[in-house]
């Protein structure tokens, strides 16, 4: 392409190009301002109307400050009822705490369920800044 051909770009092509760039920039700004959570996935045992989680020491504070949890794709607020002292798992040689949280959903006792705990609500832009 030479200089004269660049000056004679048809009007429809030019507006289409500007439109695509404008839509891309707006989409990028919306994505960066979206709020997201960090997620901790674990298993819990349902007993006496409560969920019992064995949480590693590294995640014990995040569980206490969590916003909500999901059980079977349904969102529930929760209240921490009990946090045990630091315990030792002799098979894996790791420390954990037993956390008992209340739940509104009634299940059969001694059922193991998959629980996703959502914490640390931030914008995508803040997470990207932390990575850089």
Q: What characterizes the major β-sheet?
A: 8 strands, antiparallel
Number of helices: 4
* Rounded mean pLDDT score: 84
Structural class of the secondary elements?
alpha+beta
| Fraction of helical residues | 25-40%
Order of helices and strands: HHEEHEEEEEEH
Q: List low-confidence stretches.
A: none
Strand content: 35-45%
Distance between the termini: 38 Å
Give a verbal description of the structure.
The chain has helices at 3-7, 11-32, 60-64, 124-131, and strands spanning 35-47, 50-56, 68-71, 74-76, 80-83, 87-89, 94-102, 111-123. It is α+β, with helices and mostly antiparallel strands and 132 residues long. Strands 1, 2, 3, 4, 5, 6, 7 and 8 form an 8-stranded antiparallel sheet that branches. A hairpin with a 4-residue loop joins strand 6 (87-89) and strand 7. The longest helix is centred in the first third of the chain and has 22 residues, at 11-32. The radius of gyration is 25 Å and the shape is elongated.
Using brief descriptors, characterize the structure shown:
alpha+beta; 132 residues; elongated
Secondary structure blueprint with pairings:
Elements: H1 3-7, H2 11-32, E1 35-47, E2 50-56, H3 60-64, E3 68-71, E4 74-76, E5 80-83, E6 87-89, E7 94-102, E8 111-123, H4 124-131
């Amino acid at each position: 392409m030479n200089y004269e051909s660049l000056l004679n770009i048809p009007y429809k092509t030019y507006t289409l190009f500007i439109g695509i760039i404008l839509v891309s920039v707006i989409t990028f700004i919306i994505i960066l301002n979206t709020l997201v959570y960090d997620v901790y996935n674990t298993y819990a045992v349902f007993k006496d109307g409560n969920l019992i989680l064995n949480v590693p020491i590294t995640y014990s504070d995040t569980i206490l400050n969590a916003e909500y949890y999901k059980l079977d794709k349904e969102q529930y607020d929760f209240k921490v009822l009990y946090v045990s002292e630091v315990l030792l798992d002799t098979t894996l040689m790791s420390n954990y705490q037993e956390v008992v949280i209340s739940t509104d959903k009634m299940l059969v006792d001694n059922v193991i369920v998959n629980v996703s705990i959502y914490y640390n609500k931030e914008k995508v832009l803040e997470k990207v800044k932390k990575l850089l």
